[in-house]
């Protein structure tokens, strides 16, 4: 379809026909915007995929054409080419996760958001030390129903984003709580000041943060996250949508940085049917065990 930009723009009395025409125009507008975003995404993805390939090829061609190349220089060129290939692998993996999040959830399982967050932070202990960050953590049991791998990636990307886009020796705040039955993760940091108009763009694919007027950040989390690819927050947004969760990104008013809040919907109760032997026979005993047992850890 090539004429989605055209509209009926029906004039005349405000009747049922006019209302139907306006609805069709609104539908075309949304469809046109969706296709435009899809085309832009494909163009950006193609560019991002070509970049590490071109870098690897250039590195190897230059090394091979150098008549004075030594074993050490050839080894260094190969190592840089391997690093470029690894970057492409991370990008492909991130794109696959983004697509998986956009498809929705095939199944849900009981998870403890606090346990997931604790594991994510534990895996980044060396990075916290290397960056000299002050990470303040408050975790309370908070149950949700979701996909374990996607939930872990959402938490990891928010944490990695707070680490990566921070000031030297900065602070990161990470908290998990149950708010009205909703499992809520809040991550804040002391990064650069970002205007409210720029925050919305951070949720789009291939948008990289940084101080106003600076070049796009190409570094990445030492833990291998997606932020340096410009996909970190867009993946979180897709995972949030798949879980029917709320995601908000707001600038911190005191000292710069961002505060991200991911709120999963209240978890439904799960009824287990447990076979019980009564008088030599078999009966079924129903027992609702979750989320009533909110104090137990169901994911570790």
From TrEMBL:
GO terms for molecular function: phosphorelay sensor kinase activity. The keyword Repressor does not apply. GO terms for cellular component: plasma membrane. It is an enzyme of class 2 (transferase). Keywords: Kinase, Membrane, Phosphoprotein, Transferase, Transmembrane, Transmembrane helix. CDD domains: HATPase (cd00075), HisKA (cd00082). Residues 207-226 are annotated as: Disordered. It is found in: Cell membrane. InterPro entries: HATPase_C_sf, HATPase_dom, His_kinase_dom, HisK_dim/P_dom, HisK_dim/P_sf, TCS_sensor_his_kinase. Its EC number is 2.7.13.3. SUPFAM superfamilies: ATPase domain of HSP90 chaperone/DNA topoisomerase II/histidine kinase, Homodimeric domain of signal transducing histidine kinase. Transmembrane segments: none annotated. Residues 44-268 form the Histidine kinase domain. This is histidine kinase. The lineage of its organism: Bacteria, Bacillati, Actinomycetota, Actinomycetes, Streptosporangiales.
